[in-house]
Request: fold
Amino acid sequence: MALDAVSYRDEYQRSISDPEGFWLEAATAVDWAVAPRQAHNGEQPPHGRWFADGELNTCYNALDRHIAAGRGDLPALIHDSAMTGTQRVYTYAELTDQVARFAGVLRAQGVGKGDRVLIYMPMIPEAAIAMLATARLGAIHSVVFGGFAASELAVRIQDAAPTVVVTTSGGLEPHRLVEYLPTVHEALGKAGVPELPVVIKHRDGFAADPAALGLNAVDWESALAAAEPAAPVPVKASDPLYILYTSGTTGAPKGVVRDNGGHAVALLWTMKNHYNIAPGDVWWTASDVGWVVGHSYIVYGPLLAGATTLMYEGKPVGTPDAGAFWRVIEQHKVKALFTAPTALRAIRKMDPEAELLKKYHVGSLETLFTAGERLDSDTYHWAGKVLGVPVVDHWWQTETGWPIVGNPRGLEPLPLKAGSPTVPMPGFDLRIVDGMGVDVAVGEEGNIVLGLPLPPGTLPTLWNDDQRFIDSYLSAFEGFYVTGDSGYQDEDGYVFVMGRTDDVINVAGHRLSTGAIEQVIGTHPAVAECAVIGIADVLKGQKAVGYVVLKSGVSLSPEDLQKELVALVRREIGPVADFKSAVVVEALPKTRSGKILRKTMRQIADGVDYVVPSTIEDSSVIDALMPVLRPS
Reply:
């Protein structure tokens, strides 16, 4: 099957051969305070920037300009809470008013251009309002997923140095309430800034008292009522819009920076050309605002495009059943759904014949998009069969902010192939290279790298750490960004992403550092050393499993140790790690230099072909591990 999509091929080639013309043309979709005359400044990373001579305000582009165009009465945001059974619709005019007023609240707390605002909230409208209000002031937000523990939150507070924290009483899970305020209090203490102002959106049913905790609390509702609305503040296109922390292989989080101008241009291009979403369409990304998917495609992308974005507080199953997604699609006439394969696998596990789907009319749905982890063929075929719509996988990263590889449904839809997210998107000069940086043959697996400069909307650097940006992404192959993934391209140019080349694992779409989990496990007094690997899991893509060597003389039973380690990881990293399995072993396989052979362990556990490195110190250790790595 050869590619016959001339429009895609022409657009892609133009983006590579004439990036200046291609992206300046794309930039005309943005309302600029000062229009850029140059696309890229021509400098090498980390100093290369897109539209550096332009000025804009991202919040204005997401909200105010739609009112000016006469679309103020159209729905901008639908909040559907399966947890509370409530729904709320904000028009563009209503959402703009709320955002402008909350920007006034932030301004009253001293937030100005370039200052940081840390947001620690669940899937409630106020999370999006806080993000947009920060952008309105020309400030920089850093959203931290509500499931993260105090120690993780503290690290991000220390690194971002926010002027204010915005949070809520807590989050709602199917069978429990998650109190946020004690976590925020502990994190502020650990970060050494206990006096930092904390704006709190109060929710019913939570017990923690801000005054009793000693928080410097500001009540959301009272402050909002007294606030003067703030106007949009223009910033340079190259100024940061947000910082989003992602796991690093060292365990220390990396603050991915997103700029204002390139971000707006790229997201507008993708909403029209990749996702085929236009003003007035109802778009649903079933993710969380704490992740890059939530930033790009719950909040900014659909609002920049003038569409209606649906924000869902609930689960794919259990709130109340495996028909929850179908209910939302029917009720709100969703045109396209973007979710993780994990959600589809959970639905299929509970309702394999999709009996619950028969209760709902989902005829509005035209496309199902998936990303966040590899879409397995079984789930791909199942979803396509039961829904009767194209199931479109696509692949990207926190660092890129938008699809590297996808299927341009609004430009010219390409044939779908199970196991492939399709082809490189315009702007991404994708190559597959060997360890020496040489292009490999068609069909041969290698390192997936991207030619520099990366297109607009991708990270220009890491927060306050240009050198780590270079070391992490640009040092392995000169002139290329290293994605950290391996894969191959077939004879049609379709990309197949095979897995990570480092020790960051993907649990239900959440990237987690095995090194960070190992650090936590290593603090247990019984543990001498450990290795954590990601093992393939039918439901969640990967699951973290710890292999632990005990200190001499420890009498703790393996069962009790596992319980304590699970509790320790949950407390220090949070429930998102989903760590449930710790196995006691006599020794770990290592090279002569002392490096633990995690990749080999993972390959054995996943039942794939492996080669024991010649540098192994003691090959008998592998043999001894076989029964626990691959139990019969």
